[in-house]
Structure formats: C-alpha cells, structure tokens
Amino acid sequence: MSDDHGTIESLSSLAHDAQESYPPAADFRAAANQNSSDIYLRAAADPEGYWAEQAQQRLSWKKPFTEVLDWTNPPFAKWFANGELNVAENCLDRHVANGLGDRVAYYFEGEPGDSRSITYAELTHEVKRAANMLASLGVTAGDRVAIYMPLIPETVIAMLAVVRLGAAHSVVFGGFSAESLRARIDDVEAELVITADGGYRKGRVSPLKPVVDQALVFDNADGKPSTVKNVLVVKRGGNDIDMVAGRDLWWHEEITAYDGEHTAQGFPAENPLFILYTSGTTGKPKGILHTTGGYLTQVATTHSDIFDLKPESDVYWCTADVGWVTGHSYGVYGPLANGATQVMYEGTPDTPNWGRWWEIIQKYKVSIFYTAPTAIRSCMKVGRQVPEQYDLSSLRLLGSVGEPINPEAWRWYHDVIGAGKTPIVDTWWQTETGAIMISPLPGLTTLKPGSAQIAQPGISVAVVDDEGNPVSNGNGGLLVVERPWPSMVRNVWGDPQRFIDTYWDKFGDKYFAGDGARLDEDGDIWFLGRVDDVMNVSGHRLSTTEIESSLVGHHAVAEAAVVGADDETTGQRVVAFVCIKTQQEILAPEDAEVVLKKHVADLIGAIARPANVYVVNELPKTRSGKIMRRLLKDVAEGKTVGDVTTLADTVAITAIAKQVSGN
Ligand code: WTA
C-alpha cells in the first residue's frame, strides 16, 4: 500500500468518524415518551417548576409539598422538604391499587437455571410481611440496616421492607471482604445485617454468611465490638454455615410468623433512603447519603424518558448488581416507581457460557437492555458468532453506563446486539448524582458514538477550566454541575467536612464531579476519565490510595505505588509497584506477587486485586519526594516514559521500565 493511499484512506475514515451520527428513526421518534425538544427549553426556563411537576405527576405523596428547593445553606440541599411520602408504597402498593397487581415486577433467573416470576401483588405482599418481621426485630424509622446479599428477589424485598419502615439501607456488594463490610457496618452503626448463606457465581456457591461472621467477630481499630444485634439469613446457596444462637435467624423460618397486613406511613422527603459507599481520593470509602423524595423523582423521570419506558409492554433489564448505585437506581427504585417489568439475573455473563445473557434476552423478550462498556468489550472479544445464535429481535433500546464507551464498542453493540436499529443511550452519572445527569434522549437526540452528549432537562452542567470559567466548544476541562438537582448526594455520612472538601471546595457553589470532559464543536460532551486518584476498573470505582494503604499495611512492604493502567477490556487495570523491606526473609520477591495480590483481595475485596504487582528497588520520586505515578502509568501501559525533568534521578524509572518490559 502506497503512503499516499494510506493517507487518503485514513483521512476519509477520520472524516467519516467525525460525521458519524444516528438520528432517531421516524417511527421511534413518533412514539417516544419525549419527542419535542421544547422540554429542554421549558425545564431550563424554570428548573424547579419542572422538577416539582415531575414529583407531583410521577409520585404519590402522603402529604403534598409546598416547598421545592431549599438552597439556603449550600452545599446542603433540601428538595420537597415539607412533603411526605413512602418510597415502598410508591414502588409497590399504588401499582396494585391501580389494578396492576398481576403485572410481573421481576423475572428472576438464577445462575444454576432456576427461575421465578414475581408480580407486583406478590412483591407487595412479601415486602409487607418482611416489614412486619423487621419491625419486630426492632427496626424503626431513622435506623440503618446493612445488606450483604447475592442478586436475588429477597435482596429487593429486604431493601424495600427497610425503607417502608422509614429506615435506611446500606447495601454492601457481595464481593467485598469481611474488613470492608465491617468498616461499613461500623460507619452506619447497623444493628441488623441481612445476608444469605451464599449465592451462585461462576458455577459455584460463593459463601456470604461466613464473611459476615468474620466481619462481626473482631474489635475494630477503635477497640469496639460491632453494633450488630441480629443477622437475618436468606437460604440460597445451601452451603453449610454456622448460626450464632441469639443473634442469627433464618429468614424463611422467621417470616412464617408474619402476615401481609402493613400500612405504609409517610416520611419526610429528606428522610435518609440509603447510604452507599464509594471510593474517594483518600483511603477511606465515603458513605454517600441519598434521601427519598428528590431521589425517587429523578430516578423515575430519567428512567422513563431516557429508556423510553412503556411499562405496559416493555421488558427491561439492567445487568448491574444492587451492590452498586446503578442497581439501586435502575434495577430497583426507578423501574419499580414506574411500574416496569424487569429481568433480574443472579450470575455472571459467561456462566455456563458466553451465550447466557443473549439466551435470557431471547427467553423473556427483553426490549430495553442496560449494561456497561466493559461487558460489551468482553463480548466483542468472544465474537459476534455467540449473540448471533439467539433471537434478539425484541430489543428496541440499549443503554451504557460506568465509563466512556469507545466508538468501536458502541458500533458493535448497535450492530450486533441491536441489529443496527436500536438507539443507544450513553448515560453519565455517579453514585453521588444518584440518577442519570447526561445522556441522549432517544426520541430527540442524533446520537454520536462515544459521546454522552447533553444534560437532561432540568439539569445544568458545564465544562470549566481550573478557575471555573466555562470553556468554549472544541475545548476540554472539568465537568461541573451548576445547580442543585433532586437526586444529589446530601452528605458524606458522618463527615460533612469531607462532603464540602471533596465536591464543593474547588468551585464554590458548583459541584465538582472529578471527571475530565471535552466539548465538541456542537457543544456535545465527551468524557475523558477521572482527573483524581480514582481508577475505573470494569466500571467500578477503586481508590489508588486505598489500595496503596492496604499494601503498605502488609508487614513486608516498605512503600507502594498503585496506578490504573489503560486496559482494552476492563477500561483500566490495577498495577502495583512495591518496595519490600530489606530483610528479605520476611517475603521473598518471587512470592511477593501472589502474596500481595491475595493480601489486597482479603483486605478490600476481590474486585480490588491488582492485575500486576512488581517488586522494585526504588520508586521514581520528584525532588520534593512525591511518587511520580504518571511515569509508572506510562511504564505499565508500555509507553515511552514521559517528562522526567522533575525527577530526583532517573535511575529508578529506567530500571522499572526495563523490568516491566522484560528486557
Ligand atoms: C464514570 C456509576 C463516561 C465517571 C453510575 C464517573 C462514565 C464514575 C459514564 C462514576 C459514562 C460513569 N461515560 N464515564 N457514560 N458513566 N462514568 O459512582 O468517571 O460507580 O465519575 O457510578 O464513572 O462511577 P460510579
């Protein structure tokens, strides 16, 4: 191929990329929930009025609100504060009262192949019984309950039973370690933990209750025993477990004593709903607090508009585990508030083989499917011949969340899974935002693969420079949210100063999201990844600092540096560089990799396990002694090492580069 030819070809392919766009199909647009761009203008003209209208139309209030937003004490927002509602009633009872009791709420598919369908009437009945059971165990409004469960219907029943009583839940993802679970239990001072014996994962039972036992047995760093009085155990895995007399109770034995009579009481809209922990830039995870009225308003609105939900005919499936915010907002609260029929699948996409997801879509005729780019890329690697064996013609809309979706994965998703016809909504949001903030609206937006595009109606965002000045189109900067929004984080649990410092210190009354972003010539937003020490591995947030402190906590480690290296499939992967203490007998360098990977997994959880651990003699440092993580990231990615002018000496980085590249 001549140079000339190559140049012309690459230029024309670039031009194609730049223009590649997918306008909504006429029939999709005509039937879409939102198909007039007036909505953006209306909402922008009066955001509070817009949200008040959503709150009134989409939810049922025990006591109507007369105040919308209270921003008199920024950054502590209150929405609909003098209104009262019951979240569980909004998700359940009112649908039954509206004659929708026979509609399926969840089609549950267990990993071993067992399945159950649960109607709104049945789910309501089970939640009422569970609420009675929890009440008799002492759960009352204002309490916190920890939930450590597989993805099974009882998990949702437990969550809704807790909130029905006006208490708040803190769901801890089943992949977290005993240490991490205990830290969260301590932080919220939970007196009750709801768990299961175990759940199915990758073809075997993964034990959960034994992890709870381990989490509760020790005195914490403050020398205190756990606050937990009872552990309620759902039978799922059938694995052998110990039951501690007086503390532990089987769910299926206890529940028989309770009937389905339970009247939902209204609670103020700013009553805590849940606390969900997420990694920050310092070692300790932050407890992100969400409340009821504003949260439910925004998750219901976005779920309906962005996914174009037709509750009477759609089958919707969000693949996220409820241990993450996506599972909370778009696997439980948004869809249930909207009366949707959903699929819930317990296991992993590759069990027993990579056809599993597509088989489920075929079986339940899923029409709306919401997953993460990392999963799409894994499926791409396996090849299109797998999904092509299944009938996916029921799909009419696809969604993406968790990290930027690269255009190549976008096209594969669109063409192979969506038969070249389904719109894709690339949704940007965070644990802190509670609900989707930036996304196309499928009946209105001309899609651009790789861009999350525009703020939702009623949401005001900007890309700004370091001083907080908005950048012009064609430029990059930091993403901020300019006005309070209904589902915004209300606080960091127990640490208001950290809430202020993390999100509000940088730009005053604008929320600093921690993401880099670029505006294209049309003003559409393209995300560029985190600008802080947070890594994004398979769409899950991990803290560099937290993993470094766990490594340094190992008796043999003198120093550690962790970086998130770009990875084709998982977005980023965790790469650690450690210096071992000089007494070699503590830990032989050849054992270090295995031992330290396990150490991190034990301390934080398997999701944080480094992909690589390199034992090095010295870490590269600036003259002032700061570790140069940027250079280590280059090395881990096999790139030429960048600017080294600020280094004290370049010996360390040269040696590491040699070691990593293996020559
Ligand atoms: C990233 C997940 C680009 C981002 C809901 C954000 C995204 C972090 C997207 C939040 C997207 C999420 N495009 N980046 N569509 N969605 N992110 O709290 O860096 O687990 O700050 O919430 O994921 O992750 P979290």
Automatic annotation (TrEMBL):
Family: Belongs to the ATP-dependent AMP-binding enzyme family.
Domain AMP-binding enzyme C-terminal: 546-626
Alphabetized GO MF terms: acetate-CoA ligase activity
SUPFAM superfamilies, A to Z: Acetyl-CoA synthetase-like
Protein name per the record: Acetate--CoA ligase
Keyword ATP-binding on entry: yes
UniProt cross-references to CDD domains, sorted A to Z: ACS
InterPro entries named in the record: Ac_CoA_lig, ACAS_N, AMP-bd_C, AMP-bd_C_sf, AMP-binding_CS, AMP-dep_synth/lig_dom, ANL_N_sf
UniProt domain AMP-dependent synthetase/ligase: residue ranges: 95-485
PANTHER family in the record: ACETYL-COENZYME A SYNTHETASE (PTHR24095), ACETYL-COENZYME A SYNTHETASE 1 (PTHR24095:SF14)
Keyword Hydrolase: no
Domain of life, source organism: Bacteria
Lineage: Bacteria, Bacillati, Actinomycetota, Actinomycetes, Micrococcales
